[in-house]
Specification:
This protein has 293 residues and is of the alpha/beta class. The chain is 35% helix and 12% strand. It folds into 2 domains: 5-148; 165-292, no CATH class.
Length: 293
């Protein structure tokens, strides 16, 4: 069966007209493109493993690109946490042999694109066309219709989530995060590998565990600080020594004090207040605006 190049455009959380216009323009530019199938999905970071959008990403047979409003590194590991696979270093030798031996299973390539990384829809459309033309399993297929994929099987607004994402390319399994977190977010798998076991136990807005990770392997994709949100390159160092956090004094205002204060602040019981949902939304949008400056 002929394969298509799949493109998943993740909506922004915000109602910024410029962002909405960019999303729609990208979809319009690619909608009638041969061999490319467009999926419009809710914000990637807010999706849950059982959602229809996640299932669509898992089921995409050909090479795939995911466009979102978070850093490309963060996108890659959010997809990993949702069990969406396709990156070369995720395919074991045994899986590669199994794929090669099967005529109906083809290894695909996943590409992540940050929707803030290019100036306009035309440049994104051209990048997608180049990826589609160079796709390993690219074959002729009829034009695809735009597919708006819902985030879940239920009606209503998608819940805004806040949880840590682990970059396993950097993680050394040192367990400092599980020792530092007091909210029961982290656990280990059968191989004693650290994992985010209870993501919804995380306190919204608290990034303290990312500050104590020696390898900068923990991300919160919606945080205003690029180093915490998953940026690469020249970012502010976050490496901390837990022995200093628990055993020694720190200068006021430094990163160690900040990590401790963030954790302690979020230990306080949360009291629901009238209008708190709207306040959360405004704070999220303010953080997002600050992060883009």
């Amino acid at each position: 069966m002929a394969s298509q190049f799949s493109v998943f455009v993740s909506r922004s959380r915000s109602t910024d007209p410029a962002k909405i216009a960019l999303e729609e323009s990208i979809v319009a530019a690619l909608d009638k493109e041969p061999h490319i199938r467009i999926h419009v999905i809710p914000p990637l970071y807010d999706l849950r493993p059982g959602s229809l959008a996640v299932q669509a990403m898992r089921d995409a047979a050909g090479d795939t690109a995911v466009l979102s409003w978070i850093y490309e590194r963060a996108t890659r590991w959010v997809l990993h946490s949702l069990d969406v696979r396709g990156f070369a270093d995720e395919v074991s030798e045994a899986e590669s042999q199994e794929t090669a031996a099967s005529s109906d299973r083809r290894r695909r390539t996943l590409t992540c694109l940050d929707l803030r990384s290019r100036p306009d829809a035309a440049s994104f459309a051209e990048a997608i066309r180049q990826l589609a033309q160079g796709a390993e399993w690219y074959e002729s297929a009829p034009n695809a219709e735009r597919a708006d994929t819902p985030g879940s099987g239920e009606a209503g607004t998608l819940e805004r989530r806040w949880y840590p994402v682990i970059d396993y390319a950097r993680c050394t399994n040192c367990m400092e995060c599980i020792d530092f977190c007091l909210f029961g977010v982290y656990g280990v798998d059968d191989a004693d590998r650290i994992l985010v076991e209870q993501p919804d136990q995380c306190r919204k807005g608290c990034p303290a565990c990312s500050r104590v990770c020696p390898e900068h392997a923990i991300m919160f994709p919606m945080h205003a600080t690029p180093a915490i949100a998953g940026a690469t390159g020249d970012v502010v160092p976050l490496k901390l020594d837990l022995s200093q956090i628990f055993g020694g004094a720190a200068e006021p205002g430094d990163a160690r004090t900040l990590a401790m204060s963030e954790r302690e602040r979020h230990l306080k019981p949360v009291r629901p207040e009238a209008g708190s949902d709207r306040l959360d939304q405004l704070l999220d949008e303010l953080d997002e605006f600050d992060a883009r400056e």
